[in-house]
Design a protein that fits this description.
Blueprint: E1 2-7, H1 13-27, E2 32-36, E3 50-53, H2 63-76, E4 82-85, H3 88-92, H4 96-113, E5 116-122, H5 130-135, E6 138-141
Parallel strand pairs: 1-5, 1-6, 2-3, 2-4, 4-5
Length: 143
């Protein structure tokens, strides 16, 4: 399953992201991963979630590289059930065609490996391709 939290900068995506991450971590301790660029939420995310600063892995800077990183994460940690990714466009780039391809592939990957992905997308809804929005099992639009 792939969930998207979409909205422009400053509309409350990260606050919603942290709330969802903490709810999932409290319900499923040690089965939740939170990936962000920088350590923005370090003190806000529950200690029950595994917090990853993607900046510690400098080669993960494209959608293909990030997909490979997620594949390795899942293959080495069979207990992961939910992965929350903050600021996907900052991590991998603002190319919406590549983003769309990524979320389409991610949905199949999520189904195959029984993992739920929740991503924040810092963009107005109308700037996100309809095909990418259609992938979302849950779509939260803020702002």
């Amino acid at each position: 399953m792939v969930n998207l939290i979409v909205g422009p900068k400053g509309c409350g995506k990260t606050k919603k992201f942290i709330e969802l991450t903490n709810n999932a971590a409290n319900a499923n301790p040690n089965c939740v991963v939170c990936i962000e660029k920088g350590s923005v939420s370090m003190f806000s995310v529950s200690y029950l979630a595994r917090l990853i600063d993607i900046d510690e892995f400098p080669k993960v800077n494209s959608y293909d590289g990030f997909f490979a990183y997620l594949s390795g994460l899942i293959s080495g940690n069979y207990d992961i059930r939910e992965i929350f990714i903050d600021s996907i466009l900052r991590i991998c780039g603002r190319d919406m065609a590549e983003f769309t391809r990524f979320v389409v592939e991610l949905k199949e990957f999520a189904r195959t490996h029984n993992v739920t992905f929740t991503l924040t997308v810092s963009s107005k809804k109308e700037n996100v391709p309809a095909e990418a929005l259609a992938v979302a099992n849950e779509l939260v639009v803020l702002g």
